[in-house]
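pipeline/complex-builder :: batch 7 item 3
reading input block
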Amino acid sequence: DAGVIQSPRHEVTEMGQEVTLRCKPISGHDYLFWYRQTMMRGLELLIYFNNNVPIDDSGMPEDRFSAKMPNASFSTLKIQPSEPRDSAVYFCASSSVNEQYFGPGTRLTVT
Amino acid sequence: AQSVTQLGSHVSVSEGALVLLRCNYSSSVPPYLFWYVQYPNQGLQLLLKYTTGATLVKGINGFEAEFKKSETSFHLTKPSAHMSDAAEYFCAVSDTGGYQKVTFGTGTKLQVIP
């Protein structure tokens, strides 16, 4: 398995634009997580899915953020409209009972 | 609510020296504890986790951690540091045993001096 795949690896966008981050989890994993990492706030859980169903989205900062998991092999995190304070590294992770793997992250810069 | 406190945002050790990264937890229920490592420009990688049972947990890359309930601690150690150990290390806690509601510490950057 190639591990958790995220795209793009880097994204630079202007304030107000829509941003979509993508994630392909490890096959067979039944949980998928979206995290955000910043210097100020550290690593924060935004949302997680179990068997493609969103279970807890209490970490999603605002209505500008939305996440979907249409099938077991794909998830998106969308920010619309984006703001400079959304600049961060966004990680996707997937897990089974016995293991968890993180993707390499998407570094988002909103100017 | 559960939380972890990592003592020292930066730790420097000489190559070959003992590595000790400190973590104290707070939890209202028996905790599940984790250590992760993050290399530059990469995602986190699970080093080890404590659920129940043996209090000394061995992980990857020669690291181990000991759960001490009386001290509410879960310090990470490695007998001999390698240059490749230079990274940021995160302690984390969960009350579910799984990865669903893991709360991370603020991280400790380990520098290994040749």
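note: Residues 1 and 12 of chain B are 31 Å apart (CA to CA).
queue -> next item
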